[in-house]
Amino acid sequence: MSEVKGRRRIRILVAKPGLDGHDRGALVLIRAFRDAGMEVIYTGLFATPEQIAQTAVDEDVDVVALSHLNAAHMTLFPKVVEELKKRGGENIIVVGGGIIPPEDARILEEKYGITGNFGPGTPIKTIIDHIVERVRKERWKQP
């Protein structure tokens, strides 16, 4: 599913920034991404935006998938984008998920380019399809 016309598999970094110790959803997504054929790297709990960005650049990922459930998404998610830019990773796609109110999701997308911002109960297929579509268009430049 994550391979398109001979391209390498999608490489995705799943990250739990800040002091959010709730990782059940992230662990479910990690397995789903792997089962969809993606190469998955997981930062573990309590990663800093700097650690996330450095790992993303070092591992040459296509996507950083951020998960946060305790209301610091408007601080931490933009900080990850800022840190990616500092390290030359501005072309890495960033998607979000967690407890994100619709107005915050709109700001994250419009101002920072962080799309998805999926909440609990979002079908896994919806998340995977979103990631594959963005990678095809933005990283692999396919229609």
Automatic annotation (TrEMBL):
Domain B12-binding per the UniProt entry, residue ranges: 9-142
Keyword Metal-binding applies: yes
CDD domains: MM_CoA_mut_B12_BD
SUPFAM superfamilies in the record: Cobalamin (vitamin B12)-binding domain
Presence of keyword Isomerase: yes
Names of required cofactors: adenosylcob(III)alamin
Keywords noted in UniProt: Cobalamin, Cobalt, Isomerase, Metal-binding
GO molecular function: cobalamin binding; isomerase activity; metal ion binding
Top-level taxonomic group: Archaea
NCBIfam families per the UniProt record, alphabetical: acid_CoA_mut_C
Protein name: Cobalamin B12-binding domain-containing protein
Organism: Caldiarchaeum subterraneum
